[in-house]
Amino acid sequence: MGGPLPAQELSVFENLERLDLSWNFLTEGLTPKEFHGLSKLSKLKHLDLSWNYFGNQILRVLGTQLPALMSLDLSHNYMEGPLSIKEFHGLSKLSKLKHLDLSWNKFGNQILRVLGTLPALKSLDLSDNYMEGPLSIKDLANLSRLEILDMGGNRLNGSISPYIEALSSAKAISLSNNYFNGDFPTQDLCRMKKLEEFDISRNDFEGILPRCINNISSLRVLDISSNRFIGNLSSSLVASLNPTAIEYIDLSHNLFEGLFSFSLFANHSKLKVVRFMNDNNKLVIETENPVGWIPLFQLTTLVLQNCNLNKLTGDIPKFLFDQHRLEEVDFSHNKLKGSFPFWLLENNTRLQLLNLRNNSFEGQFYLQPKHHIYISWMDVSGNHLGGRLKENIGKIMPYLYGLNISQNHFEGDLPSSIGDMSYLELLDLSFNRFSGKVPTELVSKCTNLIILNLNSNSFQGEIFSKHFKLSSLSVLQLNNNQFTGTLSSILSTLGRMYLFDIGNNNMSGTIPSWIRNITKPEGVLVMSNNFFEGHIPCGIDSTFLIDLSHNSLSGPLPSCFSAQSIILLQGNKLTGSIPKALFNSSSLLILDVRENNLSGTLPVEISTFSDLRILLLGGNNFSGMIPNQVCLLKKIGIMDLSRNSFSGTIPHCFHNITFGKINATDLAFSKSYVNFWQFYVGETSSYAGLLVRSHDSNYFYIDMPLDILVEVEFVTKYRSSSYKGGILDYMSGLDLSCNKLTGGIPVELGQLSSIHSLNLSHNQLTGSIPERFSSLAWIESLDLSHNSLSGEIPSTLIDLNFMGIFNVAYNNLSGKVPDMKNQFGTFEKSSYEGNPFLCGPPLENGCSTIAEKLNPKASERKWYEVDPIVFFASFSVSYIIFFSVVASILYINPYWRQMCFNLIEDIMYWSYFTVLTPLKRLSNRLCRH
């Protein structure tokens, strides 16, 4: 409708008692004439103005012109507090008002004192407003007449005792989804003899539930879900509930433990709803003890999720054979066995939701060949069901909104009748063994599909044909199949998706320019492991995550490239340098361009990636020095610069990078990237009480999360390992191997106490291994091999208790290998080979042999291994003594003296005629020639 309230047109209905103008987007702005016309509706008792655009001014109009109002719904408007004097007086004149709904506005705590002036008020809904902090008795003093109070969805905290004390006569109280904490208000609650409905779900209460709840004989609804209550359910609660009154009970998401026998509910004849979603593994729910018990109740809703249901036998509860009014059944995340319980659908013809996810059901997915017109949601994923789907499955369940049969063993072709499920919004067939082509009927007739997941099957053929008309898709997952063909232009006519994944198929061709319009800015585009070729078009980077890895893409990175968060381009044929436009994205988390032909130096502008967590540049042709600006990337966890041509020294500032040492507030991948879709399941009459609960309204929905887990490969411990999701926040490593780095290893690297992998191998590093490496407390892999390191291996490294790989082979190290203690007891001789002067186990060289080689014994020395000082001293003394003796003899004996002189004279003549005469003859001949 829109526009102002049509008071003038309504004034002709003077006897009107009930008026519903909800969902009309009406506004205020009454003229004096219209204002007067509204006063003619003097008999109006029930007025619904919810879901409009009214502000506070409507309050003074209603109070002065419609004094007979008994029921007023102003929820989902634009009202807020505090009220003006006129608004206050206008509201206070509604003296006959019994039921007031102000939910989903912006009122604060002050509104309570205003509402206390309404003498007839019995029911008040202030849920989802802006009320906060603890409330006092004074705030609630004038509300003692209330029978129904809903203050859920606010920011209230502290103790709830004031609420209980002030509302001792109340029949229904909801304080759900607030911040209340502490122990349960045992005594105050147990005095509320008239209480019929009590909802304190989604708070932070703790302790044991009181047995005195049995004093509240009229209690029909009890919702204590999403708190921290403890204890044994059998003794603390169920035995205290009035079996002739209780109709609705929700115990989900607490800390209960022990064995709970469901047969304790056997005599609760009015029980309709039981909801129990467990978060721990300490509670076991047993339904088969005693054997053959028969319930007096007929349930409409039964949720027993993740609660070790019949842990010993794995049997589906047999009391269900006696149930015929079930509308919602959820046994997900148990270990139930046996065949698919088709009889649940046969016995409960109004069953709308069946969730058997993550159990161990096996055999055929058997369904009776008749229409199940009420079933709207079925999830049997994560079981062992197999075989082929029935050809008429689409005709058996024509009104399904959601079908999830993923992670089973289904096989064969997909029946064409699935196209008859024209209401489908979610279809998940992933992780099965389906084959053949996707039926044309599916992609042409199921036009309401929001999520289509065919991941990890063996589908083949071209899916993007002219028949593809799924224009409502938000998620399309075709990855890990055998699809062929190109990206048809039919996709350019679709709306923007959150996830488009065609990775790991056999698709080919170029990437069209319109592909940039296929995903939302916060979306995910995955086209990896195909045969796409050509250049990367501009604009394709306008998504949260882009994965084009392992294709045959060529050319440079686009000059317009400026990604949002994650770029994965590994294993292509890209050339050129990193474009400057890329450095405009300060929100980049992952950059992976490994295994390409990129070149140039690492730009100093890389420091603009202030939020970068993973940098992978290995296997390219980058050169030059590693700039110090890389140390400004303080949040980096994994860095791979290996297999390039980087030169120069390793920056001493690497210790400024966290490499795994992060705070809880810095987690980037543990949060995961989740988007929720809310799917309509159908109308339900499961329970309607005094309080309105979201899952008990006339319609109920299912929230389906889509969790995007980023996956990155990194080489550590001699193998390429895949790290996925939250583990990326904690995995850390630095790989500088296979470059041309020189100089010593910076001692500052020893400050990387949280790093898991460090690889400096295959470089030209010199100097010693830093003693500070003993501070690498979390190191698992340390590779320093194939360098020119010298000195000894620090013995303190044996204190590194998590190190599984240690390699210093092919260096110039010497001395004793660290003792074979702790992790060093697991390293083989290959970790040390190529160092001839290392000794000790596990090497064959004993340290005594090495010492003898370096300093042999005197008895084993060769004749030429003489001390030079001793040699020259002994030679000189011997020479002097010899000539002194000869001179003395010649001086004393004249005969020997004469003989000596004659000998000298003969030697001189002989030398002259033997040597000098032939030399003169030779000289004369040479001159003549």
CATH architectural label of the domain at 732-863: Alpha-Beta Horseshoe
Spans with pLDDT under 50 lasting ≥5 residues? 694-699, 858-864
User: How many helical stretches?
Assistant: 15
Radius of gyration: 43 Å
How does the overall form come out from the CA principal axes?
elongated
So what's the CATH class of the domain at 732-863? Alpha Beta
Mean pLDDT: 87
Distance between the termini: 134 Å
In which range does the helix fraction lie?
Answer: 10-25%
Overall number of strands? 62
Show the helix and strand layout:
Blueprint: E1 3-4, H1 7-10, E2 18-20, E3 26-27, H2 32-38, E4 46-48, H3 57-65, E5 71-73, H4 85-92, E6 99-101, H5 111-115, E7 123-125, E8 132-133, H6 137-140, E9 148-150, E10 155-158, H7 161-166, E11 172-174, E12 179-183, H8 186-190, E13 197-199, E14 204-208, E15 221-223, E16 228-232, H9 233-236, E17 248-250, E18 255-261, E19 273-277, E20 283-286, E21 301-305, E22 328-330, E23 337-339, H10 343-347, E24 353-355, E25 360-364, E26 377-379, E27 384-387, H11 393-396, E28 402-404, E29 409-412, E30 426-428, E31 433-436, H12 440-445, E32 451-453, E33 458-461, E34 475-477, E35 482-483, E36 497-501, E37 508-510, E38 519-526, E39 531-534, E40 545-547, E41 552-556, E42 566-568, E43 573-576, E44 590-592, E45 597-601, E46 614-616, E47 621-625, E48 638-640, E49 645-648, E50 673-683, E51 699-708, E52 711-716, E53 719-724, E54 733-735, E55 740-744, E56 757-759, E57 764-767, E58 781-783, E59 788-791, E60 805-807, E61 812-816, E62 837-839, H13 847-854, H14 868-892, H15 894-928
Parallel strand pairs: 1-3, 2-4, 4-5, 5-6, 6-7, 7-9, 8-10, 9-11, 10-12, 11-13, 12-14, 13-15, 14-16, 15-17, 16-18, 17-19, 18-20, 19-21, 21-22, 22-24, 23-25, 24-26, 25-27, 26-28, 27-29, 28-30, 29-31, 30-32, 31-33, 32-34, 33-35, 34-36, 36-38, 37-39, 38-40, 39-41, 40-42, 41-43, 42-44, 43-45, ...
Antiparallel strand pairs: 50-51, 52-53
Helix pairs in contact: 3-4, 14-15
